[in-house]
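Q: How do we represent a protein-ligand complex in a form that can be generated token by token?
A: Start from the inputs.
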Amino acid sequence: MTDYFDTEEAIRRWDSFANTYANNATEQGDLHREVFLNPTLFSLMGDIKNKRVLDAGCGEGYLSRILSKSGAKVTAVDYSPTMIDLAKKRRPEDEPIHYQQGNCEELSFLEDASFDLIISNMVIHDLAHFEKAFQEMHRLLVDGGNFIFSILHPCFITPESGWEKTKTGEKLHWNVDQYFYEGVYEQPLGDKERMLFFHRTLTSYINGLINTGFTLEAVIEPMPSKEMLKKYPSFEEDFRCPDFIVFKVKK
Ligand SMILES: C[S@@+](CC[C@H](N)C(=O)[O-])C[C@H]1O[C@@H](n2cnc3c(N)ncnc32)[C@H](O)[C@@H]1O
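Then emit the structure tokens for the protein with S-adenosylmethionine bound:
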């Protein structure tokens, strides 16, 4: 764990990892998105036809493409220039997705109250200043608009967490330590990169939302559905504890 890395270093690492990340992405994102995150996000969104939607931290853009195909008017931002280039290249000609490079902590190039819905999928834990991002999302939403975001579950994915295993590799239980540490830590992703994640407690997330002026509408700790378990039986172990948590809040 270390205290001296910030959002700029986190995005530098994302940028150098962008091509590898995009090469592994499917039109559903990846397996965890297909099994846990996409069904949860879409169950919370409701009808998005003709809604002005911001995909905040869009990566290579799979979710923007799904949103646009579902009839939403999509703007998508990512702070990594390489991710934005990749997303633009993958945009089908008939999908008018508007991509722009920008830091979710400071999106002054976007107008106040210009979105009905904001989705941010697995991005907020990449930010050194998550409260600033909450304030920006609040500013960008119309009154009554929703902000839906998924993050690593802060109660279970901490700077020191992981399976306790027997010598033969059998998973005994999931260990959690350093829950009350709030700050940055490094996490291997892919073969070479060590990404930066910013951990904070569930209390900090919820108080951050309340202090920004949001009303909490729903919280989901996604589990695999029967259909997904049939398709991918190894996700059975995800009934033991959740990796993700998804919030739906209203302005
Ligand atoms: C785990 S990826 C998720 C991408 C996409 N939402 C998805 O689900 O496929 C995290 C993304 O957040 C972007 N990101 C990280 N920090 C950011 C920031 N401060 N502002 C905007 N985007 C950021 C990264 O460049 C990366 O594309």
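The mean pLDDT is 95. Helices lie at 7-23, 31-45, 62-69, 81-90, 130-140, 202-212, 226-231.
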